[in-house]
Amino acid sequence: MTDSDSQPTERFTRRPRAAPETTRVALENFLDSVEAISAFLDQATTGGRDRFRRNSPAYACGSLAIIRAAALFEADAFSEFLADTPDEVAKALRTMRNIASHSGYRAMNDDRFWVTLTVELPPHVARWRTAAQTSSSS
User: Fold this and answer.
1) Is residue 2 classed as helix, strand or coil in its secondary structure?
2) How far is the CA of 13 from the CAs of 7, 10, 85, 113, in angstroms?
3) Contact predicate 62/52, CB 8 Å
4) Closest residue by Cα to residue 38 from 126, 110, 116, 111
5) How far apart are CA 6 and CA 75, in angstroms?
6) In terms of DSSP H, where are the helices of 6-120?
7) Max alpha carbon distance in the chain (Å)?
8) Tens digit of each residue's pLDDT (9 = 90 or more) over 10-26
9) Mean pLDDT, to the nearest integer, of 104-115?
């Protein structure tokens, strides 16, 4: 196609990628969040199931781990690091976050909460960290 001066018209212009500074900041923020989640998981689980009781510091740290993990899915800038996370994981984290944040501990199934913190969440945290580190090296 040409315009009136017989010059080719531009049909497609690729949008520039996110500015390197924006990408670097998102990566740093994501990794900071993943490290915080890991620290909260460690604090929640180090004393074992016997010390993981409602209103204990360990229980509060477990709640913070869930709250921070669910928050990752609310930031569009983090989507590339979370791309391999199944939708049901994000949904489960949001549900647990809502229970911890709004319903209080009375509504939480403590055994299910413990399994989430010790078995189910740690592999995802490790994958998120690896995805971000892989992204930073490319």
Assistant:
1) strand
2) 16, 7, 32, 49
3) yes
4) 126
5) 46
6) 20-45, 57-72, 87-98, 110-115
7) 81
8) 676 665 555 555 688 99
9) 87
